[in-house]
Amino acid sequence: MDALAADGKAVKGFKVRLEELRFSFSGMENKMMKMADDGERPEDVSRFVLETVARTVAAATEKAMEKYGKMPVLMSGGVASNSLLRERMDGALFAAPEFSRDNAIGPAILTYRDLR
């Protein structure tokens, strides 16, 4: 998705409302679906989604630092492979993108343990 978004139109993304440190991407998801249904290019839809995620995570991180004090920030998980987020989060620590992607091993192990 990151590679696809690199060829998308630069956009502001969707303004996600932060309540304390909580947020939901449901509004962005609805807008993304409408963009796809309206025939917008996949590159532009991908850029819209990743820009929205980057903007929101960066804003939530900033609010967390205001609330809890400035401290080192370590980004992990699939969201951490977003190059737009990496650009916005100057000073944050990231693993290499290939080690930041989601994989299904964690949920698979938890499901296996739960069903045993």
Automatic annotation (TrEMBL):
One Pfam family linked to the record: TsaD
InterPro entries: ATPase_NBD, Gcp-like_dom
Chain segments annotated as transmembrane: none
EC number: 2.3.1.234
Key words, A-Z: Acyltransferase, Transferase
Molecular function GO labels: tRNA N(6)-L-threonylcarbamoyladenine synthase activity
Domain Gcp-like span(s) in chain numbering: 2-105
Protein name: tRNA N6-adenosine threonylcarbamoyltransferase
Organism listed in the record: bioreactor metagenome
Gene (name only): tsaD_58
